[in-house]
Amino acid sequence: MKKQKAYFFLLLLAGFLGSCSSKDKYEDSKVEPNTCSMIFIDKSVSVDVNKAFVNEKYTTIINQLIDDNVKMKGDKIEVYFVHENTAKGKAAEMVCRSEMEKIEGASSTDSEAIATEYNRSLQRERSIYKKMVLTQLASQNTSSSKNSTDITAALPLIDQQIAKGYNVKAYFLSDMVESMQKPNRRDFHRNPPTDDAAAVGWAREDVVALKPLLPNITTATIYIAKPFEPTASSRKNNPAVSSYWQRLFMELGVTNEVIEL
Predict the structure, then answer these.
(1) Ramachandran angles phi, psi of 170, nearest 5°
(2) What is the value of pTM for the model shown?
(3) Closest CA to 89 of 43, 47, 155, 144
(4) CB distance 68 to 134 below 8 Å
(5) How far apart, in whole angstroms, are the C-alpha atoms of residue 250 and residue 256?
(6) What average pLDDT values come out for the chain (261 residues) when binned by 10 residues?
(7) Residue 218 DSSP symbol
(8) Sign of the C-alpha dihedral, residues 58, 59, 62, 65?
(9) Other beta carbons within 10 Å of 146
């Protein structure tokens, strides 16, 4: 009887250890989520990408983010134009297709060759993407949509990509001057926030309507790149505008710090 109990105990122990081993293998095999880099390029009248400083700054940011974020098959880049109709302003979409061959059982020489070819393939794709995005940066908006700036419309677009399982990094190449001449919308051209207190108050007011529509945005990483030189006056580069967006994202529950580039 004691032998039988010992036998059953050993069976249970083996089963438990086997399940733990399987769990560990499963956890090890979990794949990192793909990155979706969303680039929002301001195409309103207040941003001139043909200015040398602006063009150089935005070109550097675009090249760097593509190098940093396009790392494996399925990583995606989306380009949107920010103007009166940002929600329908998608200008380009690129999805990485480079995929590394399996190296299990390969010799060290073969493994190195596979990795080298994979990196070359990634570099070729990144080069193509850079040219495509920079072409969109240089394009001109000749329509009347340039007279308004709907930055808020970008937020649901970000939320939708997070809902699809992407690790979303959103880049706003913009002065962040929201300018919508509609009821219940902000127009920072005509009526900018005068100080941080006003900016914080407006952000708290606006988040009431926005938050229920953006259940996933909390995990986004937000980057803001304004077109102003370091010597720009506060009249031109209103610090209260930055305060508004910083507070809005905080009130929406975005956990990552908003980074100004």
Answers:
(1) -105, 130
(2) 0.86
(3) 43
(4) no
(5) 9
(6) 43 43 44 94 94 97 98 97 96 92 61 77 96 97 94 98 98 97 91 96 97 98 97 93 97 97 96
(7) G
(8) negative
(9) 18
